[in-house]
Design brief:
This protein has about 110 residues and is an alpha+beta fold. The protein has one domain: GMP Synthetase, Chain A, domain 3 (2-Layer Sandwich), CATH 3.30.300. About 35% of the residues lie in helices and about 15% in strands. The chain is built from 4 helices and 3 strands, in the order ααββαβα. The chain has a 3-stranded mixed beta sheet. Strand 2, helix 3 and strand 3 form a beta-alpha-beta unit.
């Protein structure tokens, strides 16, 4: 069971992720559905399982570094590991309702 501190850190990490945007789509990566899981361990180590819209995404090099930098700035985070996965592949169905509305897909 997660402690209160881990839950607070997780909420702050999610807020940090909402400040990261795909350079080609004007929606943050969390609402785009690129974040599959955020795990905060005791001691503040954070593992983020995520994908990109495509393996050939031009942000494949820069985006994980930007995410790591923003998450490391969260109070209580001791370490950040980005686990970039391609399975399951991303598709527009993973976007939140807010993202679909923002992109005029509803």
């Amino acid at each position: 069971m997660e402690s209160i501190n881990e839950l607070v850190i997780e909420a702050q990490v999610l807020e940090a992720l909402r400040t990261c945007f795909d350079p080609e789509i004007p929606v943050n990566i969390y609402e785009l559905g690129l974040i599959y899981n955020v795990n905060v361990e005791e001691g503040g180590a954070v593992t983020i399982t995520m994908t990109l819209t495509s393996p050939h995404c031009p942000a494949a090099q820069s985006m994980p570094a930007e995410i790591e930098e923003k998450v490391k700035a969260v109070s209580g985070v001791s370490d950040v590991k980005i686990d970039l996965v391609w399975d399951p592949p991303w598709d527009p169905s993973k976007m939140s309702e807010a993202a679909r509305l923002q992109l005029g897909m509803m």
